[in-house]
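Consortium newsletter contribution from the modelling node. Members have asked for a concrete example of what our holo predictions look like. Here is one, prepared for the heme C complex that several groups have been discussing at recent meetings.
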Amino acid sequence: MLPRLGLIVSIRIRPIVCLLGVLVLNVQAVLAEEATQEGPYTDTECVSCHTERDPELIRQWRASAHGPESGVECSSCHGDFHQGSAVKARRNDTCSGCHEGPASHSYTTSKHGVISRLESVKQDWQKRLKAGNYRAPGCGYCHFHDGDHGDTMAPGRGPEMRQWVCSGCHSPRYVREQFANGYRQMEIADLKLIEGEALIAASDHGQTDSLTKLRLSLIRHHKNVLYGVGHQSPDYQWWHGQPALDGDLIRIRDAIGERLRQKRFSEQLLTDTEILQSSKD
Ligand code: HEC
Ligand code: HEC
Ligand code: HEC
Ligand code: HEC
Ligand code: HEC
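And here is the predicted structure:
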């Protein structure tokens, strides 16, 4: 009797189980569909849904230079829709749109930039930014390597991170040599910046317009060396960088010398007038 009853029960239960199974599958499908829906989404929605999926990615974005205070949102790089969102962020134009000037120009004049531009059309941008998928690195390849939203090139991430990213394409020894050369270049540029700042500070005309302009130019050219070194652009190391800094130092000395001569000259004039005055008395 019992086995028969069991059979009847199981026959009766089976459709229910099947029905339940279908329901569960449906719920999963609905959830998945909802999760990958096309959009558009607001940035608050991007952040809250992705916080559930990948809290580490959101933490990296918050702590980075693109975090909430910068005003850069998920959609600034990805757009409002899911379709093509990763591809959009991987492309150089997305970054260059905001980082115009030396940041982009130093890259486009580098070998990486030239190769990346030439091969942009046949490059498959659907691929993740990691070793083996690209011949030359674009902005995102270095700064958002393998989906990391915490700027993989930031000095705070340590030299090992950069070494790892570059070594995907170059021999570790070559990369070490490039960085050693880069650090030397930066040390020299730092010394020039310090020297220029000290000259301006020591001059009692530190606040004049021409010296303020020269100081800004010094800071700009120092940054050019950083771009030259970071983006492997000889143009920025050797043209817009070091020689430009040398030019700044010469102009700063000239400006200070000129002011000093003018000062002495007017003091001289004063004493001459005084002598004239006293001779009249
Ligand atoms: C309701 C939840 C939800 C919202 C809102 C949401 N996403 Fe997603 N997103 C997902 C899920 C789930 C995936 C994973 C899809 C997959 O695995 O194919 C995903 C994947 C992605 C990917 C990777 C795509 C790829 O091709 O690898 C990016 C980039 C992304 N989302 C960005 C955004 C941005 C930007 C916004 C806001 C404009 C946003 N998401 C809003 C759930 C969401
Ligand atoms: C400054 C540009 C930038 C911003 C801002 C940005 N992303 Fe991304 N994101 C990228 C790049 C570049 C990639 C491609 C990384 C890759 O292919 O390895 C990416 C990849 C992703 C992926 C796929 C990650 C993976 O491991 O496959 C997700 C998901 C994503 N972003 C979500 C977001 C969300 C959510 C926000 C906002 C909190 C956001 N991103 C903000 C540039 C950005
Ligand atoms: C919507 C505009 C916008 C987009 C798009 C954008 N950025 Fe930025 N980026 C900013 C702002 C704003 C800052 C913070 C202010 C600053 O330091 O310039 C910043 C900071 C940075 C920094 C750090 C600069 C520093 O001084 O520490 C790097 C590196 C950077 N972005 C690279 C990228 C890369 C690579 C991409 C493309 C994947 C990108 N950015 C896309 C606006 C943008
Ligand atoms: C080969 C790897 C690589 C590529 C490609 C690359 N960068 Fe960089 N970038 C670096 C390194 C390394 C630095 C130096 C970081 C440092 O020491 O502060 C840097 C510096 C920067 C800075 C200044 C950061 C600061 O601290 O002031 C910005 C902004 C930036 N890059 C944006 C871009 C943009 C935009 C592109 C594409 C047009 C790009 N990068 C392409 C590696 C790269
Ligand atoms: C995705 C691959 C890839 C990555 C990642 C990459 N490079 Fe390159 N790099 C190349 C290619 C390809 C060339 C051109 C080689 C040639 O000249 O034939 C090149 C050229 C160079 C050159 C030579 C420039 C010249 O004028 O001759 C230097 C220096 C360099 N890379 C340094 C770096 C550094 C430093 C990093 C990391 C911050 C890096 N590369 C990351 C692919 C890459």
